[in-house]
From TrEMBL:
Its EC number is 2.2.1.6. One of its GO terms (biological process) is isoleucine biosynthetic process. InterPro entries: Acetalactate_synth_ssu, Acetolactate_synth/TF_NikR_C, Acetolactate_synth_ssu_C, ACT-like_dom_sf, ACT_dom, AHAS_ACT, AHAS_small-like_ACT. Pathway: Amino-acid biosynthesis; L-valine biosynthesis; L-valine from pyruvate: step 1/4; Amino-acid biosynthesis; L-isoleucine biosynthesis; L-isoleucine from 2-oxobutanoate: step 1/4. This is Acetolactate synthase small subunit. It is an enzyme of class 2 (transferase). Belongs to the acetolactate synthase small subunit family. Transmembrane segments: none annotated. Dimer of large and small chains.
Length: 184
């Protein structure tokens, strides 16, 4: 007999929020020193979670601080557990759950290479204008477009370019920052 909700096979009551796997975007402010990235990534992978996107860069040269932005998926309790464990690592200064922030901006950059001739080239250029993608390289048979925006926008651009001769994509992963005068 199942006591849980819906199609749960557990004999223990499980709240609906615990069953739901959600995407989590975590910004981890760390001391910029050797091995920090390996420790942060190791902590997440040791818990059995996949990192869907990862970006890292030094953000404060004077204080030697870097920002690691990680996109992963998990139940709310598992995401809270990861945040708590990340917060206990010595080089970690702060962990921010960007998905919980109402005033956060998220963007991604992609370089998209298209090879084609004739109508395919014309259509690729037309679509790039709609998506505000910029041609950063062009030859007689190819384009490389730079497109920035939300992941959904980039995914839509890539999907539309597939039949037009898409041969390669390079993406940065998600970047995020809070709106307004506050700093992370």
């Amino acid at each position: 007999m199942s006591v849980g909700t819906g199609s749960s096979q557990s004999v223990y009551p499980v709240s609906p929020g615990e069953e739901t796997i959600r995407e989590a975007i975590l910004a981890v402010i760390v001391d910029n020193e050797p091995g920090v990235l390996a420790r942060v990534v190791g902590l997440i992978s040791a818990r059995g979670y996949n990192i869907e996107s990862l970006t890292v860069a030094e953000t404060d040269v004077e204080k030697h601080r870097s920002r690691i932005t990680i996109v992963t998926r998990g139940t709310p309790s598992k995401v809270e557990q990861i945040k708590a464990q990340l917060g206990r690592l010595v080089p970690v200064r702060r962990v921010i759950d960007v998905t919980a922030e109402t005033d956060a901006l998220e963007r991604e950059l992609a370089l998209v290479k298209i090879v084609g001739k004739g109508e395919q080239r014309v259509e690729a250029m037309r679509l790039s204008g709609i998506f505000r993608a910029r041609a950063v390289d062009t030859t007689h048979t190819s384009f490389v477009f730079e497109v920035t925006g939300a992941r959904e926008k980039i995914n839509a651009f890539i999907d539309l370019m597939r039949p037009l001769g898409l041969i390669e994509v390079a993406r940065t992963g998600v970047l995020s920052i809070r709106r307004g005068p506050e700093s992370d």
